[in-house]
Amino acid sequence: MFQSMMTPVLGLVCWTLVMWLWMYATRIPAMQKAGIDAGKIQQKGELDVLPIEVKRIADNYNHLHEQPVIFYALCVYSHLVGVADELMVMLAWGYVALRVAHSLIQALWNFVPVRFLVFMLSSVVLIVMTVRNVLAAL
């Protein structure tokens, strides 16, 4: 199972859903404490009164819908064209691990230099995956 290119995709999907649960487990009580009526919110700025710790988790959930889209596309492409060798699967798992680390850093600590380093490392993994696919296509 861990040899499939699709398993890291499932792993990151599961992690994204963990962050979704964490976001609502913190956001709903914070909104209640702040007296915010969810039915009356007209714009995102109305949530600015929430504690930064709550907003960081929501921000990370949103981040998991940005760059990882490239990861999902690369994994599907690699799987379909047969570039999903052992190294590519390891790179995919490395990307998932880096995104989990990025989430935990942002949600729990948010020391931006470390968070940026992890983000850059995950970007390098995507670049390597892309280059391997391009070279295989030549």
Q: Which key features would you list for this structure?
A:
mainly alpha; 75% helix; 138 residues
How would you summarize the topology of this molecule?
Blueprint: H1 6-34, H2 52-63, H3 68-81, H4 86-108, H5 112-137
Helix pairs in contact: 1-2, 1-3, 1-4, 2-4, 3-4, 3-5, 4-5
Q: How would you describe what is shown here?
A:
This protein has 138 residues and is mainly α. It is 75% helix and 0% strand. The chain is built from five helices and no strands. It has helices spanning 6-34, 52-63, 68-81, 86-108, 112-137. Helix 1 runs antiparallel to helix 2 and helix 3 (68-81) packs parallel to helix 5 (112-137). It is elongated. The two termini are 29 Å apart. The mean pLDDT is 96.
Indicate the low-confidence ranges by residue numbers.
none
Strand content: under 5%
Assign the structural class, choosing from mainly alpha, mainly beta, alpha/beta, alpha+beta, or little secondary structure. Answer: mainly alpha
CA radius of gyration is 18 Å
Oligomer: single chain
In whole angstroms, how far apart are the ends?
29 Å
